Amino acid sequence: MQQPSVSIVVPVYNEVPNQHDDSFRVRIQGLLALLRPCDELVLVDGGSIDFSWPTIKALASHPQVSAIQSEKGRARQMNAGAAKAHGDVLLFLHADTVLKIEAWQEFIQKLGANGNAAFWGRFDVRISGESKWLPMVAWFMNQRSRLSKIGTGDQGLFLGRDLFERVGGFPEQPLMEDIELCKRLKRIAPRQFVPIRKPLVTSGRRWDVHGAWKTIVLMWRFRYQYWRGVSAQELARQYADTREKRSLTVAVFAKYPQAGRVKTRLEPLLGADQCAEFARYLLLSTLDKLHGVNVVLWTDGGTDAEWDALLEGSQFSGPVQRHIQPTGHLGLRMECAVQTHLKESRVVVLLGPDAVQFSKTDLQQLERAAQTHSMAFVPALDGGYVALACTRCVPAVFSETIRWGTASVAEQTKAALHMQCISAQWFQAQMDIDEPDDLKAAIQHGFVPEDWATHYS
């Protein structure tokens, strides 16, 4: 009898923060090494704004890989992947899960023993991370699941296509979609539950970040509330409120200071080479000004070695985390940074290195204003803005309809906020440096030292 074919469906959202991050690609290539000729891999992007979608499209050059996009949401993405898949059995894996060959082999053996594919189940799980409690967390997860026949997405849920269609796929809810799927499967096929003892390996990052016991209590509380009838939407709101985040991240946007590519409007005054030196001064002085703040550098151009060498000249404490700016207009690049950092920070500030008047006091005021109004801006004298702070992402503020790089950016941003009925706080306009007169005025007012060229030499 021919064994059922398998479609592995992986929902993806912002898994590749920069072009040099190979961890996601390595996990996918590990899955490909396991596949039999009859199997396939379906990668479903939920509208990522980092490098995930280009990476997925590149992986789809393999004949057994399909790459599609759907609306964001794990349930929506997995349902979209199932609709695209051709396999007799659907296996749903989280993007941060590693499927080892031993677990895959046991899974294939179970397929052989259940040739009609009318079964469902999950894998045991092992959690990788720093907390010493993670092995015990995994043991309890596995035992509870074995007794209750309720699996979680971390455990790699699988089921025959016919069963998937009979239960209507994953319920499109923001949380507990895996629990609800298993509850429905228990009602129609309780005897077809097949647990795989060889474990998957899943990331223990949330336990490490939030604390093992705190996370355990939180998850059990949510399951109890869901059992009592609390809606998935309400639980998702509670989950968002309970996630511990750092107070602030400052994302500094910078081009690599290459002659002829940076501060070109200053060339009549400085020349191309000195423009590059001035851009280097602006960046390093900005980083030094942000001493003690969680700063992430979003770069455009330059190699890793060139950035490492450049940043050695800064007095900034510790290594500077770096992301590569995605392609596209400035608004899209800023939106990517906001989306990325709001996952772990309550307030995100976007700042350019030529905001020479901007101080730590301004940063503190901007952070407080964002906590009150959700968005706050320090406008620039030339009609743009030198800094933005937010506690949520408002796509209209980063739209391609805003004429980026013009003197109308601030006014268009205010209009976009008005259309969204959002009241942001705007501070007094500050200087940034684009034209020769800007540099002369900055030196005259003491925002840039006259001997700037001797700094960071």
From TrEMBL:
<dbReference type="Pfam" id="PF00535">
    <property type="entry name" value="Glycos_transf_2"/>
</dbReference>
<keyword id="KW-0808">Transferase</keyword>
<protein>
    <recommendedName>
        <fullName>Glycosyltransferase 2-like domain-containing protein</fullName>
    </recommendedName>
</protein>
<keyword id="KW-0328">Glycosyltransferase</keyword>
<keyword id="KW-0472">Membrane</keyword>
<dbReference type="InterPro" id="IPR026461">
    <property type="entry name" value="Trfase_2_rSAM/seldom_assoc"/>
</dbReference>
<feature type="domain" description="Glycosyltransferase 2-like">
    <location>
        <begin position="7"/>
        <end position="159"/>
    </location>
</feature>
<dbReference type="GO" id="GO:0005886">
    <property type="term" value="C:plasma membrane"/>
</dbReference>
<dbReference type="InterPro" id="IPR001173">
    <property type="entry name" value="Glyco_trans_2-like"/>
</dbReference>
<dbReference type="InterPro" id="IPR029044">
    <property type="entry name" value="Nucleotide-diphossugar_trans"/>
</dbReference>
<dbReference type="Pfam" id="PF09837">
    <property type="entry name" value="DUF2064"/>
</dbReference>
<dbReference type="InterPro" id="IPR018641">
    <property type="entry name" value="Trfase_1_rSAM/seldom-assoc"/>
</dbReference>
<keyword id="KW-1003">Cell membrane</keyword>
<dbReference type="GO" id="GO:0016757">
    <property type="term" value="F:glycosyltransferase activity"/>
</dbReference>
